[in-house]
Each structure stands twice: as C-alpha cells, then as structure tokens.
Amino acid sequence: MGKKNIAFFEQEHFNKIKEYRFTPDPFLQEYVKEFMIVETPDLVNLETLPSTSVSLNYILNGAVTLKQKNQEVIDLPKAFAFGIARTSLHFEFSKCTTLFVIIFNPGMASALINTPINEFFETFIPFDNFFNRHQISCLNKIFSKKNEYELMVEKIERFLLVELLCAHTDGIIKEAIREIIDSQGSIPIKKLLGQLQISRDSFEKKFRKQVGTSPKQFSNIVRFRNLFENDHKKTNLTAIGLNAGYYDQSHFIKDFKAITGKKPSSFL
Fold this sequence. Notes:
The protein has helices spanning about 135-140, 150-165, 170-180, 190-195, 200-210, 215-230, 235-245, 250-260, and strands at about 20, 30-40, 45-50, 55-60, 65, 75, 80, 90-95, 95-105, 125. The protein is α+β, with helices and mostly antiparallel strands.
C-alpha cells in the first residue's frame, strides 16, 4: 500500500492549489494513509479520482461545493466523511479555502466509525451523524488552530490513537484488500474466495460493511487508480492500460469513459 496517493486529476489550473502532506505516526500507519491539507488562494475547480477508502474532511476556511452531473450544486458541510467513490467528482473551492483531510487505508475507517462503511458509498455524511458530542468537541478544538498545521496533525494523531486503542478489524478482509491491491485489481473473486476459505455471501457482506463497496467494485477502482499511481514511462495508451491491469484496449477505454465521461487521451 506504499504507492503515492493522487487525489486530483491534473488540470491546467492545478498549479493554483497548495498541498501539504503528512505521514502518520508509525502506530497509526496501519489505519491512516496520510493527512493532507489543501489550500486554494483563488477560486478553483478540481476533479477527483475515484477513491478506494473513506476520508474525514474538515473545512478550516472558505467553502467547498459539489457540482453534480445534472448541474445541481451542493454545499458541503464544514465537517464530513466521504466514502469510496467509483466515479470522478467535480468540486469548486472558493477563494481562500483550506481543507484538512484524513485519508484512511482501504477498509480501516471501520475501526473508528461504527456505522457500516457501505452507508458512506459516494455519500457525504456530517460528523454529527456518527461521532458523539465529546468527539466532535475535541475535533472542533483541534481544528481551531487553523494556521498551525504541524500542531494540528499532532493533536489529530493523539485523538486517533485514543479512539483506535481498542479497535478491531476483520483479518480476512484485510488480507483480501492486500491481495486485490497487490494484483492491481485483477485477481478473480473466485480465486480470492478459495485462498481465504470463506463463502461468497459471508465475504461479500463483511467486505461491504468494512470497506464500503463490493470486492468487484473495489477491484475496478484500484485498477483505474493504477493508471495514475503506477510509475509508467510508456506513452502508448494501450500499453498504459495493460500495465494498470486492464485486459485489452476496449476494456480500458470503456471503463475510463464510464468513470470520467471523457477519453483517456484527455488525461494521460
């Protein structure tokens, strides 16, 4: 799981944002992939890649809106969780917006959040829907230090360490996630079931609850993200698709258009 984490498609205005990334404390690295802070000095539109895990998000300054395909605009709450997403999403960040993001490793947000993670699929859920008053009070106090990023990260780490002290996640699902990622999303689910020695029904139910989507959909997202996270030097689109785990060019192009609404040549 050590690949670089790419959040946004790189558009012509991508250099107008600032990103700060922090590696979590070693005791948290099983659960948290990284902490990320995004600053937008000017109004900017950003398109995200499909995601394989849950994130906790806190808008420190400014505002963020989601622009849906039907042109409806949704104002995001100040503090919210967002689950796995199988498609790219379009956001508008207002001038002088700062967003703090806690990005979990796939399947690990369930150690902190008691709500079944499949309920977060492509959904924005405010903190008060799953955190208690004491937890929200602690988080609000931490995020009040808006310009002291390192101190903020340290305090968030302490909060998470306490909350995750007695956490438990299913070992079979952790192994399944590892196998899917290591195979670049190409391992057949039937083969995975044989390796894990578990029935399909039980596996599907546990996977959805802990990860947030089905094993097949998770594999599809992993494969798509490989297009951007793999360190490929190939310029031929077919070769890039095959290197990412797609079976052939038509499969690659069809999947890309379904996720982004555009051809691969628009981004790669």
